[in-house]
Each structure stands twice: as C-alpha cells, then as structure tokens.
Amino acid sequence: MNLSLSLLKRILGTPGSSGGGDELRRRRIIGIAAAVIFALFPLLPFVDNYWIDVGFYVGIYALLGLSLNIVLGEVGLFDLGHTAFYAIGAYVTAILNTRFHIPILWLLPVSAIAAGLFAWLVTAPVIHLKGDYLCIVTIGIGEIVRLSMINNPLGLTGGPNGINGIDNPHFIVPILSSRQFYYLLWAIIGLSAFLLTRLQRSRVGRAWNYIREDETAAKALGVNVRHYKLSAFVLGAALAGVAGNIYASKQMSISPESFTFMESSLLFCIVLLGGLGSIPGSVLGALAVTVFPEIFRPFAKYRLMFFGLALLLMMIFKPGGILPRLRDSGERLKKVVETKKARSSKPGAGCEDTADILKRANSAESADRSGSINTIDRADNVDTTQRSECSAHAETGGAQDKLLLRIENLGLSFGGVTAVSDMDLEVVKGRITALIGPNGAGKTTVFNIITGIYRPMSGRVLLRGEDISSRLPHQIAKAGVARTFQNIRIFPSLTCLENVLCGQHSRGKAGFAASMLRLASQRTEESRMLQKAQTCLARVGLSDSADSLASALPYGKRRYLEIARALAAEPELIVLDEPSSGLNDAETLELAALLKSLVAEGLTIFLIEHDMNLVDMVSDHVVVMQSGKKIAEGPMCDMRQNPKVIEAYLGSEED
Amino acid sequence: MTIKKTGLVLGICCAALFLALLAGCGGGGSGKTVKIALQAPITGDYAYEGQMAKQSVEVAAELINKAGGVLGKQVELVIVDDASNPKDSALAAQKAVSQKVAAVIGSYGSSVTEPAADIYEKNKMVSVGYGCTAVRLTMDKERKYFFRTCGRDDAQGLFFGTYAVETMGAKRIAIMHDNSTFAKGVADEAMKALEPYMAEGKTEVVYFDAITPKEKDFSAAVTKLRETKPDVWYFTGYYPEAGLLIRQARDAGLDCPFIGGNAAINDDFVKIAGLDVAAGALMTQEPLVTDVTTDIASQFKSLYQEKFKELPSSPWPVYAADALYAIVGAIDKAGKLDSDAIAEAMRTKMDGVQGVTGALLFSDRGDRRDVPYKMYKVDPEGKLVVAEL
C-alpha cells in the first residue's frame, strides 16, 4: 500500500551486522586505503585534468549523497526532490556573486543557510506526512524550484539560459585549476563526513535512527519527532547548498538543466546503492554512479542500460547497499566520548570502566535472578493468603498512598465508534495497577491517551495533579511516563544498547552543535546515558546481547528489551501493554518477579494484561473495562467474584 | 579471509586506476595527424542529433583528407560525448583538452555549450559551436576562442517576425515555447522583432506562453490558444511536442497556419502528427543540406548518402561539418596549430574558405556572418520543401 515504507522495510530487513571486530578492522583498512587513493589521485603522473574533473564530480555527488543520506538514510524520509536544495545553493551563489561580486567562499555559508531556510519553509507544513505522501510532495518541491528558475522570477535567475560569469573561489590563492577544485571539494567532504560521523554517534543521530525504525515508539519514548525530521531536512538542505555553491563556481555558469528530477533520482540511487545511513556508502555510491557511466561511455546509447542493469543486480543481491552502516558497539560508543586526557592518564581506563559496569551489572543480574525465585515463591505464598484477606489489604493500601495518575471523565470516539467514554481511573504511586477487560474494551486506547498518542475528546489526564492531556507524546515521556507496546515496537536494525539509549534521549540535552563539536558537557552526558542504558540492560538480563542487533533477539527477550528501554527513560510511571503476551509460563513467572522488584524500587506500574495469573500475582489494584467503560475496580480476588466482570468475560448465562 | 577480501578490494582499486591510465593515455597522438575533437550529444536526450553530427563530421573529414588534409597532415577526429547535460559537457570539454586536440567542434544546445566554452576559453583552445543559437553565448561575455557556424536566435526570430507580418499579413500572432533555453530564446527574439510592428499597430501578439515538454496531453494549452483566435501560430520548441500539439490543435478545430521553429519539424514530426495534419506546416529554418547547391555540398551529399544512405534530416549536423571546414580553413590560413593564430585567422583571414552551406566568415564576436534563413513547408508527401512565397 505504502510503497516507500515497504521499500524501507525491505532494505532495513536484510540481515545487517553490528560492527563485529573483523568487519570493523577491514572497513578501517579499506577506509584508509581509499583516503590515501583519493588524496594522491590528482598527483599521479598519468591522471589528466579530465580524470581529476571526474573525481571532482564524484565529490559533488558524494556531498549531495551525504546530504540526502541525512534525510533518507538516517531518518528514512523519502525525498525525491533533493536537487531543489542543491539548486537553491547554486543559484544563491550565482546571483549574489554576479550581481554584488561577493567572493564565492563567503557565499558558502550563505548558500548553506539559504538552502536550509528554504527547506524549513517548504517542509515545515508537510513534515507530518508519511511515506509516499511526503515523497510526492518532495517531487513537487523539486519541480517547483526548477520551473521557478526557468520562469525567471524578478529577472534574477536568467530563465532557461541560467546565469553565467560566476567567479572562481579565492582561498589564499585563487582556485582555478581542476586540481585545486578537487582538493577544495574533498576537504569539505572530509570535514562534513567527520562532523556527520560525530552526529551519528550522538543523541541526535540516534534520535534520527529511532524515527526511521519506528516513529511511534520513538515518539512515545521522548523523541521530538517533528523537530528531528525538520532538522534533518534543514541540515541535509544546507549541505546540498554547499554542494551547489562549489558546483556553480566550478562550472562558472548554471542553468536549470542541471537540476532536473533525474538528478534527484540519481541522488536517491547513490544513497540506496551505498547503504542507508552509511557515510562511506554514500561516497562509494557517488563513485559508482559517476565512474560507471564514464567507463561505459564508449558503448554510447547502451551505457545507461548497463548502468541500470548494474543497479538492478545490486538491489537484488545486496538490498542493504554495498557498505551498509555498521552499528557501533557499546565499547566504541564509550571510547568516543572519553576525553583524550582521561585515556592517557589512566591507561586501559575504558576497559576497566566497561568491565566494572559489566561486573556490577552481572552481580545485579544474578542477585535479581536469585531474588526473583524468592519473589516468585513469595508471590505464590502471598497469593494464597491474599485471597482470604484481600479486601482488607486493598482498603488500607488505597487510602494512604499518594496518587500519581488520575484520569477523569475520559472520552474518545473514532468516527461513530466510541472507544472510551466516561472513564475514571486512578493509579497510586508505588503500586501495580492492572487494566483488564475483554478484547476491544478500549484498554489500549486509554494507554494511547495517557501517553499522548491520541488526544481525548473529553476529560483530562492528570499526572501528579497536572493536566497532560494536551501534551505531545515526547513531552509526556519527559514528564515521567514510559511505555511498552502490545505488538512489540523495538528498533530492529539498531543494537540492543542503542535501543535502550532511546529511553535516555529525553534525559539528555546535547543538540547539534554540542554533538558535532563534542563539547565536554556532551561527553559527560553521553557517558552518563551509556552507563544508565547498560544498567537497564543488565536489569532485564540482556547485558550479553548489548551489541547484537535487536532483530536478532528471540521474541521473549524483545519484550525485556522494550521494558529496559522504558526503564532507561527514568520514569515514575511505567505503562506496559500486555507484557506477557507470547511468553511461556516460566518466562511469565520471571516477568512477574521483575515487575515486583521494580515496584519495590519505587516505580509505579500500570499494565494491560490478559494473563489473569500474572494479574493475580502482581497487581495491587485492578480496573475492569468493557466497551469503553469502567465496570468495576478493586483487588483481583474481588474482581473474580464480581458478577459484572464475570458477565463481561463469559456472557450473561452465569446469572 | 579478511586479508583475502582486503586484497580483493585493493586489487579492484588498482584495476580502476589502470583503467584510468588507459583512458588517459588516449592523448599524445602522433605528429602525422591533426587532431580535431567533436563534442556532441552522442548519448542522452538528443543522441539522434549527436549521431548525425558525428556522421557529418566524419564525411567532411574524409573529404578533407582526400583533398590532402591540412598543413600536409591528415585530420583525425576525436569524439567526446556531452549527453546534452551541462555537467557532462564540462567533463567532455576537459577530456578534449586533455587529449591535446588542435580545436574543437561543439556543441549542440546553448546551455550545454556554455560551460564547455568556458573550459576551452580557459585552456586557450578554439571551439566552434554548431547547434547553439543563444545570443548571449557571444554577446554576454567576450570569448576569444569561441565561434559558431549556426545563426543566432535573433536571426530566426527576426526572420519569423518579418515573414509573418510582411509576407503573411498576420494581424493576430500566437507564440508558444517550451521553456527550454533554445525555444524561449527564439520566442523572446521573435517577440522583440514584432515590437516595432505592434507599435505601428500592424499586428498584435495574442498569445505568448509555454507548454511543458514531454507531456502527452496539451488540450489545456490548445484550448487557451484557440480562444485567442490567432492568424498564425509559431511554436519554437522541439519536434515531439510539435507533432502532438499540431495534431491536438487540428482535432480541436484550430486551423490557422502552424509555423515551427527550426527544431520543431523533421521526419519524426511528420510521423507523430500524421501526414494529413503535418502537410502544410511551415518552418523557419536555415536551409537544409538538400537545398544547398555549392560544390562542397554536392560532394558532401553524395559521400554521405553512400555511407549512411539517408541525408541528415536536421540542419545542425551540417553546421558541424561546416565547423570542421572552418577550423581546417583557419589552420591552413594561419599556417600553424597555434590557438591564437587559428582564432586570429577565423576572424580576419577566412576569405575564400567554403563550407557545405557556403562562405564561412565570422564577426569579431565569433558569430557567423550572413547565415541564410528560409521558410520551409511540409509538402503532401511529408517532405520538407522551400515554401513558395
């Protein structure tokens, strides 16, 4: 139905790798070799200006590929009009240079800002569109820009003829020769790739990936989706603007013919060919789309056919791209945020730290495991006793504890179907509250309203007495509510550690500048986030899988990963949507123990559950829903005898 | 395993460099020939034009070589492909420069020619355009080494304006283009040529608008055009749209004379429009090679027909051949392969140098002097003939 989304799934669905040592080492050797070849290439005796220029255009496409990679690769937004931003950069440079004789290199930031601003203006109103729809809008943007250039608004763009007589850049010496242009461009690419790599390994880059993997989950765990999507467009456009600036000054004349839809689709090919989200992949993709057609030029008419064939084979046999991105291991993430000083003063400090954490984590885990058995035993014991004197227990508990979440008079309907109406509910701090009811009772809708995914039509949701019903999901997450989903929503092509880091997103602040410059504050924050994430992973017993891709986890463990991710958000209230579904009996017992121990640590849990045994074992208070309304509440044992509840589950013959 | 794979990758890199070496070494050349490059759209949207240009230049080179070549050496052609795209054009120009040719013929399309002309200028290499008619190529920027054998847009526009008003007596004129550099250029120049007549009240331009190239359904444009009730309709775009436009206009009941610009009408136009509709369509154009009767033209035609059977169906390839004649003539007059001397000869010493379409004389700015234009007509058999006044 939605072509772009299914394509994205197919690409990301191919088994990736999570930065194993060998692969990493190999990539590093190739990377260094490639850098050396690129640096020395124009100096080789047999390379003439033609091949240096080919290298230059590889660079232009590499830069454009990197810029589209931010939007398409990192965030998964299908942008088929990226050439528009490239054109804006080129035209801003050309117009300001030919009219006011502003030097080209001064116009470099100006072009970047202009393209970024333009991107913000045109994408802000449409950024909420998904998949194909956004794709079509971007095609429109690309065409509108090209046609505007042709129609010569205010006599600025020179119409179909374009603009000629653009100056050469001047950096200490005038940059005239093919070789100088080559080095100027590749220096810029090097710098961009360096900064983008830093971004990738930061809170910002991960937020982009979370959105690509699962927008809803990202939102619910505190990622401001709109902000990060827009920022990706703006940053991508700015980089394309830089490419436009250099292209214009090299070419000396520009015309709308250089900014066609074909160019946009070529950029698309570059990113897909290289691998979504892969920086070396984008460069390699650019190399492929520029050099192949040049080599095949003697075949004249057939050259594009060869090129197309190569692309086709590529997509069949390696849909993930030539150089798919390797996810960073936890150790690597840790290393990059460590200061040089710390590393040199304490040799092997990094390893020690990791070891420390692992040790601590393992002990916590084993303690947890042994504890869990006890808890289960206890739970079983409590179970029997509770059944006899449960009502008294509930009475005393309810009165004294503090109220954390309160739902008043909640109502929501979809079209004519009432999902929830007149719902009142209270979740008391430090307790486990369960929401049960037959299928279609509206339980998940209540959860979605609490976490901000739906907005209620009537009523309020109060968190610690504050109305949160009009807040956005990421704000609610920040306010202290974290959740899991009924149909597990993990980020499959990220590592488990990265998955859990998502929870920490809302607890960090580092933005673009801090991440690119790797400021001290950002590094401290990052290492704090890493530690927290590792602890949370250990808490659910997944330390060993920290560096493996989430998609490699078996089903049961994915549940735990989701819980760890929610825990990493440092919530007060954790909202679990059917945590036991798909788990076997032993796993369910383990889960019960985990939930109990979390509450013991002061967390409040609100869960939807179908497994009555689990509800029985863990819950302090149970709310029963049917057809969007609350029909009963109280301790589980009371509910078992409540005629309304029995009717809801079994029908009315019980009467 | 790891080492093996790394080795493989390095091996591929070496192979790529080796390829680069091979391609790069095409240059050099022997002292026995004079290398002249043809930059043309061998691939891409106008590959059709590029291929014909290549054939025409090959024929001209063969004729020149039979007659003794230039400076006692044979002419050797080097073909570089610009795929009618400004970026590829810059690369093609760089390739021609790297191969150290004496001069370059090229290219087709003004905005494609421009970046190449800049590179040739920078490298002090004479280039002679054959299918680039934008006025600004020679008038905006002073280029010492750039020339062209084809006319400028204003020449064609002026010819149309005069013909429409003076010969046809048109009172209501419609001008349509497709926003491409070339088509809009001609349309603008036609408009300029009509302005004096409009000031006198002799005529008026009732329609001036663009259609979108590569579309198939032009009914909206045709309806709008019909409502303006034009006496004559000038379309300055290319043949695929021209064919569809005239077909759809006739179907919609618009029957005023259709005049195409020099890219609008060729054999494909007739095929697309259908013979019944195409017959009678007019076209402003430099004379086709079939209507040229110089000595060189008859030699050229017979050799071309012998080699490729059919004569070029558009005028541009012949200008490419003329560009070769001009370059060879200038080298002969200059007596050496020095670019400055060749450029100098192109401007001042071309008396007596003849090409397929006649004398090859150039103005100081590099434009060809006295480019002839004619009004052509599609006859009932679908052939282009000179229209009888």
Characterise this structure:
The complex is a heterodimer of chains A (655) and B (389). By secondary structure, chain A is of the alpha/beta class. Chain A folds into two domains: 21-326, ABC transporter involved in vitamin B12 uptake, BtuC (Orthogonal Bundle), CATH 1.10.3470; 382-495 and 553-654, 3-Layer(aba) Sandwich (Rossmann fold), CATH 3.40.50.300. Chain A has 26 helices and twelve strands. Chain A has helices at 3-13, 21-40, 49-74, 83-100, 104-123, 131-150, 178-200, 203-213, 215-220, 225-251, 261-274, 279-295, 303-317, 330-337, 340-345, 349-400, 443-450, 473-479, 496-504, 512-517, 520-539, 555-568, 585-600, 612-618, 636-641, 643-650; strands at residues 170-171, 173-174, 403-414, 417-428, 432-436, 458-463, 466-467, 481-483, 573-577, 604-608, 621-626, 629-634. In chain A, β6 (458-463) and β7 (466-467) form a beta hairpin. Mean pLDDT of chain A is 83; it is low at 345-400. With 389 residues, chain B is an alpha/beta fold. Chain B has two domains: 33-151 and 292-359, Rossmann fold (3-Layer(aba) Sandwich), CATH 3.40.50; 154-285, Rossmann fold, CATH 3.40.50. Helix content of chain B is 47%, strand content 16%. Chain B has a seven-stranded mixed β-sheet with strand order 7-6-8-9-10-13-14, covered by helices on one side. In chain B, strands 2-1-3-4-5 form a five-stranded parallel β-sheet, with helices on both faces. Chain B has a two-stranded antiparallel ribbon with strand order 11-12. In chain B, α2 crosses α12, α2 (47-66) runs parallel beside α13 and α6 (153-167) packs parallel to α7 (181-200). Chain B is globular, with a radius of gyration of 23 Å. At the A-B interface, α2, α3 and α12 of A face α1, α3, α4 and α7 of B.
Distance between the termini of chain A: 47 Å
CATH class (first level) name of the largest domain in chain B: Alpha Beta
Number of alpha- plus pi-helical segments of chain B: 14
Mean pLDDT of chain B: 86
Fraction of residues in β-strands of chain A:
5-15%
The CATH architecture name of the largest domain in chain A reads Orthogonal Bundle
List the chains of the largest interface with their residue counts.
A-B, 45 and 46 residues
For the report, how would you describe the main beta sheet of chain B?
7 strands, mixed
Assign an overall shape of chain A. Answer: elongated
Tally of structural domains of chain A: 2
Name the assembly state. heterodimer
Q: Choose one word for the global shape of chain B.
A: globular
Mean pLDDT of chain A: 83
The tally of structural domains of chain B comes to 2
State the secondary-structure class of chain A: alpha/beta
